[in-house]
Amino acid sequence: MQFSSAILLAAGKSERFGGLKQGMVISGMPLVRKCAAALIDGGVDELIVVVGHMAEEVTALLGQGRWKIVINKEYEEGMGSSIRTGARYVSESSLAILVALSDLPYLTGETVRNIVVGFGKCGKGILAPAHLGRRGHPVCFSRKYLGELRRLGGDSGARELLDEHPEDLFLLEVGTDSIYSDIDTEAPDK
After folding, report:
1. Are 27 and 104 in contact (CB under 8 A)?
2. Is the distance from CB of 108 to CB of 41 less than 8 angstroms?
3. Residues with Cβ within 8 Å of residue 175, at least 6 apart in sequence
4. Residues 182, 104: contact at Cβ < 8 Å?
5. Is 12 helix (H, G, I), strand (E, B) or coil?
6. How far apart, in Å, do the first and last CA atoms of the chain sit?
7. What is the pTM of this model?
8. How many Cα neighbours within 13 Å face the side chain of 61?
9. Are 96 and 90 in contact (CB under 8 A)?
10. pLDDT tens by residue, 76-130
């Protein structure tokens, strides 16, 4: 398997949630740490966690781990600024770059592993996991898109790259809705 990096986006304000979403406890751990653990368990070689709003608190929730934490001082510009910030720290040896959200409480290492392995086999430059025809996260990009990831802005995130390069996009059916079952309002622990 090729060297892979992941950018975990944890800089947002969680305005619809009404509090610090990254700190919501899911299966006994803060949501942001659970998402980071799923990426590591899935075999990602390098994990860059981008924090911004309440950066100190989110960093404390993450605790110690096999990840690098970077601060996006321009987080209010939107998700694109966080991807841009994280992409600046991606290793030059990385051939696959996953862009992951920190509000997917049921994402598992197995799903991440399937995405990374699928990317290596699909022959395309972008792989998006899908379930029942609906795209989800994390999305995996070839190194050839690193320059574009480093120039993103606005709030659409990397979606514009998927829209601009439909011929280079592979949808991988993953058999679970954990790739898009996010948390935008408070919900009980599972």
Report:
1. no
2. yes
3. 131
4. yes
5. coil
6. 33
7. 0.91
8. 27
9. no
10. 999 999 999 999 999 999 999 999 999 999 999 999 999 999 999 999 999 999 9
